[in-house]
DNA sequence: GTGAAAGCGCTAACAA
DNA sequence: TTGTTAGCGCTTTCAC
């Protein structure tokens, strides 16, 4: 049915080995022979079988990418970055979308192992702190390089790219202070999560450096989803000594906050300043000018893939565990400004 | 290094054939033998090689998915749908993101062919009308089932899932009319594009049915990007006999329109009614309540993948070309209302 | 019920 | 510079 190396060999009057040589640019082949072979390849529209090659070399050129939510542009951008680098290295990607489902995660690992992938890139969900042990041990037993993207350092057995959430929160808080705010609330993610703790650290550091006390009444915890921030914001607006600024630590949560502001006719930043974490393209396009801390998603994908490639070749010491920290960038759009004085 | 079927066979004291039988539940195996084999498989943590199997059976369990823009949630949702169905059928996905780049498209096809994929799902970009012939012929020469998602019927050689854009535009326009509008502008996509033409048809049909004339001055063409709609909207707002409602035919473009409304202090829907095409989650979450025609993205992915699977087994007549039309759903949020009378 | 042997399409020593 | 041969890990007749 399909054209094989044998067909090429026969028609070109050479051995399969020779065809293989021109295919892989390996070994010596007389130029004349090479041309003849190439011509036949063209004529017969032959494409070598990556499957047969993988089996023969015992080495695939496929890597696995596991994401919890492919329809979230955050992960889409990561994949975009991963894909770009993979492309350059002629690696291809088997994508597994887990919908944050434990079983699917496990199944994905099994499928990827069957495919004898070279390495694996995982972007853990926010629920990362609940990585189950079966998943982890399966991952380790795979015996192939793993790179965690924006994961948790606690999984110290894996290489990974990390975002400096402390710095991100610090920058955001500092910008609010610089704009004149002293009463700054934080709507943070789920308590105990690493990123939540880190972001609080940054918030606290900025306040302390400016001799502002961290007031418990201004510290809130949501669950990363917009409803939680919506409720918290509603509550904030009813406070007696209400803050003049809010730092909201996820892109979904900031939507909830804005909704609440809308409903209560709070103008940003006239009545309330705000800075978010991770961008929401739509808001900026329509001109809402919400400032935010921008996690470098595409870059994270790229850097992560590069690291994986390094580890792929790194057959030496078992595989050294590498870590790279990326810094989020504060993007100021005006929503952090201090315009209102009446709450002072 | 890795455990193979041979290791299992040896340790279980049977032949490789028998191991293969229990692996695939094929042929007769004494239950006692089966148990013994299974036990060894567990012990050795054996996972069969999909690569070897594919080579042997001359049949992979991989399909290719090509998208132009993985970071756009529109495509992310499609992939999600595709993935769900693929999962159920133990098919896995090699993802190719082309960034709308001709060369990458071609390269993707080459890679997929090398991988001996069973079938392919393509979501053409808006630039679909410029599908180049090299791409198309390569696609046909692959000799495997292809399913186009939201593509162009003009590529009549392929099966596909289509969205009824006429109906979508018709419903939207009709809703505006029902809300009392008579002067309804349309900000459409690139002229000559199939979807643009279809949407205009729907718009026109709704107007005609209600004895409203299509006024050329209310018909605009952008390029699907938000800047174009922004400019057009600015223009609309300066018109003498300005419309009371606007139907904007892409999710990016509606952001541009809203930006323009914002800047000119136009309240929706008090001063201007609006309906978009394809959802923008963020806007609805923050409570802007923009009505829109919702393309069934996830469903499109699911239905498309199901169709591909059908075609996979369909070894009979070459492969019949199938078409399924999906209907977008109008989601009314209030922005289509008719509140302003002063323009009447 | 089970096994021997051939073969899928390719690569990689080793010879020539 | 080219070819022979064996083998990658699995499935699949066919025979026992």
From TrEMBL, chains A, B:
It comes from the Bacteria. Signal peptide: none annotated. Keywords: DNA-binding, Transcription, Transcription regulation. CDD domains: HTH_LacI, PBP1_LacI_sugar_binding-like. Residues 3-57 form the HTH lacI-type domain. The keyword DNA-binding applies. One of its GO terms (molecular function) is DNA-binding transcription factor activity. InterPro entries: HTH_LacI (IPR000843), Lambda_DNA-bd_dom_sf (IPR010982), Peripla_BP/Lac1_sug-bd_dom (IPR001761), Peripla_BP_I (IPR028082). This is Transcriptional regulator, LacI family.
